[in-house]
Amino acid sequence: MNKSIEALLNDQIKYEANASMHYLAMASWADENGYNGVSEFFYKQSEEERLHMTKLVKFVNERSGKVIVPGLEKPKDDFGSLNELFEDFLRSEMFVTEQINHVIFECLDKKDYNVHNFMQWYVTEQLEEEAVARTLLDKLNIIGDDKSGHYMFDRDINTIATDVEVEE
Ligand code: FEO
After folding, report:
1. What is the pLDDT of residues 14-31, one digit of tens each?
2. pTM here?
3. Ligand 1 atom at minimal distance to the Cα of residue 97
């Protein structure tokens, strides 16, 4: 495997691991603050990011590359509001998308169509995750500071997220 692509894939492993820990901290904050639906959503997101990380680890090994398992970074674990939580979520997903685009660019530059093909799964996944994050943040922006709106958002979040995923 080309060394620059291997390095980028190892960076991607780290970003997915960081996203997993970030969402675990979000799930825990929501749990602590009584938002059970939001917490369930982020526990699930955290698991998904871990799967994204593992999928990359297995792929690099299959291609006889060298995996570097990253150390844990302490994620932000205090959020001022549900809005802040979901703004962070969208920002995090946009960052991951940018990094994936970077890997794709390098694959084309180095003519590694095998890795390019593998990365298409991540491109599709990011489209979906950004759409979910944007939809949820849009809903929160409509709700504003209304507490009963937050109550309903927490009750419905997992249905809203699944509906966005199905529409994709
Ligand atoms: Fe795997 Fe949503 O980044």
Report:
1. 999 999 999 999 999 999
2. 0.95
3. 3
